[in-house]
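Dear colleague,

Following up on Tuesday's group meeting, I ran the structure prediction for the two-component complex that the binding team flagged. I've pasted the input sequences exactly as they went in, so you can double-check that nothing got truncated or mislabelled along the way. The structure tokens for the whole assembly follow below. Feel free to forward this to whoever is handling the docking comparison.

Inputs:
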Amino acid sequence: MDAEDQRAPSAGTTSASGSGHDRRATPAVYVPERRLADRRIGRNLPASVLTPPAPPPPPHLDDYASIVGRAQIDALRFLAHELRGKSIKMVNSTALGGGVAEMLNRLVPLLSELQVPAHWDVITGGNDFFEVTKAFHNALHGSAYELTQAAKDIFLMYTEQNRQRMHFDEELVVIHDPQPVGLVLSRGKTRASWVWRCHIDLSNPDRKVWDFLRPFVEQYDAAIFSSQSFARQLSIPQYLFYPCIDPLSEKNRELSDAEIQQVCDDFAIDRSRPIVTQVSRFDRLKDPVGVVKAYKLAKKYVDCQLVLAGGGASDDPEGAAVLQEVRDEAGEDPDIIILDLPPWCALQINALQRASTIIVQKSLKEGFGLTVTEALWKGKPTIAGAVGGIPNQIIHKLTGVLVHSVEGCAFQIRYLLTHPEFARTIGANGREHVKENFLMTTNVKRWLLLFRLLEQAKARMPKAA
Amino acid sequence: MASAPKAPVRKPDAPFYFNTSEHLLRIGRYKANNLSELLRAMQACPEDCIFQHTFRTLQEHHFIRQGFSNDFAHWSLSSCNEPELAERLAGVDVRDFTALEGIRHRMIEIIRDFVAAHPESGSRPAHEPFYFCASDIVLLPTPYAPDTVQGFLDGLQHVSVHSIHHHFIEARLRLKRMSNDFSVWLEEDVGLNEAANDIERIDIYTNTMEGVRLKIGRIVAHAVS
């Protein structure tokens, strides 16, 4: 998991990025010494967001019926019925923080509720192991890296230690991301089907690191990727599991108008005028400066406010530099509202998205782009850069609009603000697209389908004498 | 002149079993970076890829009323900027076919003709590659197996749109005839021939799948009222 996702208030339930080992995740107290909010008109964050709220209890399967329909829940139960008594083991590299852990926190109880018990195990390792796997992670994303024999030895040593410690008594073993990939060496002693779930973009990996990991990957029964474009040519079947959001989480649940109004009041946002919002870390790849430029171009013709809500500037020097660039570009415009929020502000992000007239995600590079998923789920007309997994979510002019430049973004802001019926249509389509493809219940369904298909394949294989 | 009273609806000869199908998306081995590569891949790819990018994609985008018909047409427009080709591919109606090979041949014919007429378009790089995918399908029952027309209407209201797609659109590949499960049951087991014909004439490209559900319900309700 990218450290960025742990800091960003925009991260959803499942990330397209890989799981990782950044142990800074979910700190007990996260109150930067300097003021938390940078509101152009000078206002600190309300006390309600200064400390993390207690997590709500996880939802039950039936809680989703009002959202996805009873028929979808029935389908999950039918799918699970044939798998009763069989179990799944999920293995990743961190129990806290990051999109993968967040997703497993919801997925595991739902599978167990369907009487397909899921056990979640976490690999262990020293700092040297996690330094190596962090370097592998970056190299698989395309960063330059010199793979050494020492790094390989450290990786193999901890893999062996974890193999000795762990048991694989389940019928399906799912290994998340590259850190525990070597556990597949234990498959010979098990009756399980083994699946590698890769959450990171492997489209342009460092050759040597990939050549080292690939022999492990090819021992699995199947691999799963978050986008077609993230996959590699492999000798095993590859499946597509989109990342997902949880419609019942604080980030995405329905809010009352009073809750939305409260957050807007806290940040002095005027709901009587159009609101254009981008939610993302202060990171150049999210192009927040480009968003300000697009807003300025659009504002020549249409009245609107711009909200840039993000995190990452408080504990990341680069984030702080980007935040300063955004401030400089914004100048003294009182309609530009810049919010540097702590990572637990899910409710506030939810309210800001719901209060918005348009949501922008003008990324220059992106994983899957779960902030786009969140925006679409809220039925918001969404303008986004045509990068990474975003085109999987935004079908141009049908479920949102794709842009490639500041000028294109500015035009689409103007167009959507002046064509509310079209904006409503693409917003409604976007929500349906998420309902069909990117919700937690769909994720549960994909796991059950895969489990069934693998069990059927196993049953067809000739028994060893 | 008063219309003749309708004959009482007969009890169906057999129940209608509402089923549904769920799909798992598999990433295929073929990829196209331009129209010529798309043409070659379409000739070589397995049938289940053709199914995915025509029949199945309609199900994935069942909520869109206009502008989406199949992935080949969409890619031709969004990544190759070829509106004429996109329009022609979008005009291929999956319900004109009872076998995937027929759709494959029709699509290949359209692309081949277009590339022959516009050779420069064949090798022009697309903005984004086309990734061929396929579906692994699991057929599931639903709790609805009505043996009355009223029960059919009730089941129709409650099943998922995936079930509607399964019976109304994918059925012709299974039945190998130009019809659908609803029409076949209404005609053969209930004797509602006119309703069966009217249902077959519902336009899936100008309706969402929810719209199709509503229209089927109205047609059947009208037939028995």
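The mean pLDDT of chain B is 93.

Cheers,
M.
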